[in-house]
Amino acid sequence: MKLSRPQEECGVFGVYNHPEASNLTYLGLYALQHRGQESCGIVSSDGATLHAHKRMGLVADVFGNQEIFKKLPGRSAIGHVRYSTAGASVEKNVQPIMVDYSRGSIAVAHNGNLVNAQLLKAELEAYGSIFQTTMDTEIIIHLLATYKTNSLVDRIVEALKRIKGAYCLLFLTESRMIAVRDPNGFRPLCLGKLGNGWVVASESCALDLIEAQFVREIEPGEMIVCNADGSIESLFPFKKIEPTPCIFEFVYFARPDSYIFGKNVYLTRKELGRQLAREYQVDADVVIAVPDSGVPAAMGYAEEAGIPFELGLIRNHYVGRTFIEPAQAIRHFGVKIKLNPVREILEGKRVVVIDDSIVRGTTSRKIVKMVRQAGAKEVHMRISSPPTSFPCYYGIDTPNRKELISSSHSIEEIRRYITADSLGYLSEEGLLKSVGSTKTSFCKACFAGDYPVAFPKPADLPQMGLFEEEQKKHD
Predict the structure, then answer these.
(1) 131-166 as b/e: b if 16+ CB within 10 A
(2) pLDDT of residue 89
(3) Domain 10-244 falls in which CATH fold?
(4) DSSP conformation class of 115
(5) Disulfide engineering: 335 pairs with which of 129, 297, 351, 366, CB 3.0-4.6 Å?
(6) What is the assigned CATH class of domain 259-316+332-442?
(7) What's residue 405's pLDDT?
(8) 265-269 long-range CB contacts below 8 Å, 24 or more apart?
(9) What's the Cα-to-Cα distance from 269 to each of 144, 408, 446, rounded to whole Å?
């Protein structure tokens, strides 16, 4: 299935030193389901042994039987929801990864993507490593095993010094939980407190569900070590660089009720809409959103423009990732099963439609036609981010560049393709102003093509051609 918008990456959640660790991790993953719907898993520790349950599917389906939690005992657990950005969507790639090696057992959950994964994998295989998955996360496990020091923290640090890219990681052993965020801070990660225990989550909304106290965000380049005595250590073992958190987390990926990168997502999205209205006002009768991600921006646009906001498109929340199309063709079936226009709101009106992004343009085209068929007199499309012209290599599943419509078409050409009366994208300056980036240099590679972490050069892969092959997938 071709992507109609960028897809969520992954979500990680961990609980340390709590009697209901596995149950709480299940709830945390439930709150992070928006970050990945392909598979999920939990690994728990009872102090002596690690226990795992992981499958393809949604959290509620994989952990729907209460008996499962009897097989996940212990006071510590880590969990993962996955949308594959590196490695196939198959059972063997479900995280967390759990292995036994000479120093005991260890499990790893990873949100992100390593840009030098192919280089490291080729090197490790040349020295005899055998990989059981196609995920870049397994590379970290193999690197851990190559270092001889007795200190787990030191082995993790040495391993992570070899990798490049985006990572929020949770490690679980029989007695410890360790969380790490990459020096660029691409993805969000936060620390919480629950009784005498500690909680780590990709987003703060997961802490809210289990009523954990939000302590703070884990800093870029920071390692949090949870020890058996209940204490935690905060380490900064990597060379300090200028953080570049992903600005698209604000636009689309994070849940609106989360607090990331120092800001509330909902309020930030409303500000995106307000700024969009300042840049692209139009005489109109009603503002509607493409639900759900476009709703806060549409509310902000409506407030700033002084135009009423209405729920002109209703989303069916019970549509899964796949569905059976009817034998008799129905035009725009894929969109119509998810969205339905409210004719009484749209008929005879000049309508502003707010969405967060346009990827290929096919979905936007269908939405515009759907709104017209509901009787709209005019349809003006407004996008609460700049044109997405470049693929992401840091953990977001975007199409290759030639399939991104804005990489090869002007805004006017895109407008004609989606059949809107007008089209306006939020400017890059407006986006940065809306998120208040005076002290932060966000990663905006998907808009500008300026990648903050360099890729391996072809010369780094002699006689293998792996880098060229990887680039062909994206260019």
Answers:
(1) eebebbbbbbbbbbbebeeeebbebbbbbbebbbbb
(2) 60
(3) Glutamine Phosphoribosylpyrophosphate, subunit 1, domain 1 (3.60.20)
(4) T
(5) 366
(6) alpha beta
(7) 94
(8) 266/296, 268/434, 268/435, 269/296, 269/297, 269/300, 269/384
(9) 40, 27, 18
The active-site residue out of 10, 40, 205, 443 is 10
Neighbours of 421 (CB within 10 A): 17
> Is the separation of the CB atoms in 178 and 226 below 8 Å?
yes
Q: Model confidence over 223-279: pLDDT tens digits?
A: 999 988 889 999 999 999 999 999 999 999 999 999 999 999 999 999 999 999 999
The mean pLDDT value of the chain amounts to: 89
Q: How far apart are CA 58 and CA 62, in angstroms?
A: 6
Contact (Cβ atoms closer than 8 angstroms) between residue 77 and residue 109:
no
Residue that is written with structure tokens 């280089």 in the block: 119
* Residue with more model confidence, 279 or 104: 279
Helices (H), 216-311: 248, 265-279, 295-305
How far apart are the C-alpha atoms of 191 and 42, rounded to whole Å?
Answer: 19
Please tell me the pTM assigned to this model: 0.89
Q: Where are the domains of the chain?
A: 10-244, 259-316+332-442
Distance, in Å, from the CA atom of 462 to the CA atom of 119, rounded to the nearest integer, reads 10
230: Cβ contacts below 8 Å, ≥ 6 apart: 17, 196
Is 10 annotated as catalytic?
yes
